Amino acid sequence: MSTLAGSVVVMERHVLTIPTQGPFNLRRSALVGFGHRAESGFDGVMRLAFTVDGTHEQTAGVAVRQDGDELHLTIQTDADPQRVADQVARVLSVHVDGTGFADLARRDPVAKALYAGADGLRPPQFHSPYEAAAWSILSARRSAAQGRVLRQRVSEQLGTAYDVAGERHYAFPSPSRLMTLEHLQSLPDASIPRLHGIAAAAVAGDLAPTRRLAMEPEVAREDLQRLPGIGPFYSALIVYRALGLADVLARIEPGSRAALERLCGATQPMTDDEFTARAEAWRPYRMWTTFLARALG
């Protein structure tokens, strides 16, 4: 689909409902701040615009509202609306049955503290591995705020604009559009070929969630480091925060690990073996536990 930069795309609207599968708080998810998101207020609607799983050539604008244990999605897209709804479920981590997290909290004191403080917060995800990889290039060696400016800039320049519940939101450029990028204000020109490489990987299907989920997480992480500009930190970001994995142990993220060690009562840093052994108690929500430890401080 080709659109004029900045023009709002008007598409047929679809209304779909997805279950939350356990305690979930849309407000907490909208305001937690992650990647390019840094919302300062919440009016009952979480607004999303993104490229759709598959070729990422199609886009969607989605307004998400919560009613009890259901999320109501108003979707604008030229893609399959059910595919879009499934992607939103992954982005909000409601594709995972979260009812068992309460059982975990009853068994483990660390999980108990995190569950009490979470108030239904679950790990928000990047829209896709493709967008997470592009964010890795845009945010490298700069603050998250600077990365958000660059992402907004390239989205306004080459992405698709939607009116989502009365606000204009831009989907990130599709791979074919991103390949046309020649210059972006405040982004070093050396980063442009890296973004092109990410776009090419998406076109080849190398960033498809199904492909990455078919690999063991650490294998997927190492394999992603073949991409231009993707090192150990950003490959972990893509695997841990774009695939919707609920039960993988992120040992290399120092902030989360330090927070968990404090909750465990450790008086000195744990070894990898000690940390891995302690984390066994948090299955099948080791990633959720890791995220909440960092998010709740």
Task: Sum this structure up briefly.
The protein has helices at residues 26-31, 81-91, 100-107, 109-118, 129-139, 144-158, 175-178, 192-203, 209-213, 217-224, 232-242, 254-263, 272-279, 286-295; strands spanning 13-19, 46-51, 59-67, 70-77, 160-164, 167-171. Strand 5 and strand 6 form a beta hairpin.
How would you sum up the global shape?
A: globular
| End-to-end Cα distance | 43 Å
Given as residue ranges, the uncertain stretches (5+ residues, pLDDT < 50) are none
- Portion in helices: 40-55%
Q: Output the structural class.
A: alpha+beta
Counted beta strands: 6
Sequence of secondary-structure elements: EHEEEHHHHHEEHHHHHHHH
Computed over alpha carbons, the radius of gyration is 19 Å
Number of helices: 14
* Main β-sheet, spatial strand arrangement: 1-4-3-2
Outline the biggest β-sheet: 4 strands, antiparallel
What is the overall pLDDT average?
Answer: 95
How much of the sequence is in beta strands? 5-15%
